[in-house]
Design goal:
The protein is mainly α. The chain folds into two domains: 21-58; 63-180, no CATH class. 54% of the residues lie in helices and 0% in strands. It is built from seven helices and no strands. The radius of gyration is 32 Å and the shape is elongated. The protein starts with 26 loop residues before the first helix and ends with a helix.
Length: 182
């Protein structure tokens, strides 16, 4: 018997791409095979993406910060009022901020926009006890969301560059006052 010489060719791993489907398959069968192969590749890519981005810190997005709709007094009638006085006052203040504008650094700016406390004061109609109760509920709502480091409603209002969050907090305070029966 002749002695076999060792092969000089090296073995290569099998290709990872799927082999071409046999020609005798129907179009539907070939499409099914391609769909299965693509699904496997997409699943592998999704896992790779999750692994590669797991170290990136992210904060959840509040949709109230993303979805905004311009409001005008003519197009946005006031909502049905809450039955309790403090909740109704905060709801009116919220509506005033939405339609009349928000400002910081002053109760009312030259264009008539108001800060959180300015909107409450404009809607109290002279009842200082009701104003104090509304401001207290508003500060409580703010502290629930942002912690006890918030000193006052005016300092919270002035700490923001836009009215998105302050206006939203007045609306949340109205809900809180209603839940408390105030």
């Amino acid at each position: 018997m002749p002695h076999a010489s060792p092969s000089t060719a090296t073995e290569h791993p099998a290709p990872t791409t799927p082999a071409a489907p046999p020609a005798e398959l129907t179009l539907e069968e070939r499409l099914t095979l391609v769909n299965a192969a693509m699904t496997a590749r997409l699943d592998k890519a999704a896992v790779a993406y999750e692994v590669n981005t797991a170290h990136i810190p992210t904060e959840p997005v509040d949709l109230d910060d993303v979805v905004t709709v311009p409001l005008t007094p003519m197009l946005q009638p006031p909502p049905e009022s809450y039955p309790t006085p403090v909740a109704a006052l905060l709801q009116r203040a919220h509506h005033r901020l939405l339609t009349g504008g928000w400002c910081s650094g002053t109760l009312v700016d030259e264009d008539g926009a108001r800060c959180m406390l300015g909107a409450i004061r404009a809607e109290t109609r002279g009842d200082s006890g009701l104003e104090a109760s509304a401001a207290s509920v508003l500060l409580d709502a703010i502290r629930r969301k942002f912690g006890d480091d918030v000193d006052s409603v005016p300092s919270f209002n002035d700490a923001h560059g836009t009215g998105r969050i302050p206006i939203r907090m007045v609306g949340q305070a109205a809900h809180l006052a209603d839940a408390r029966g105030l």
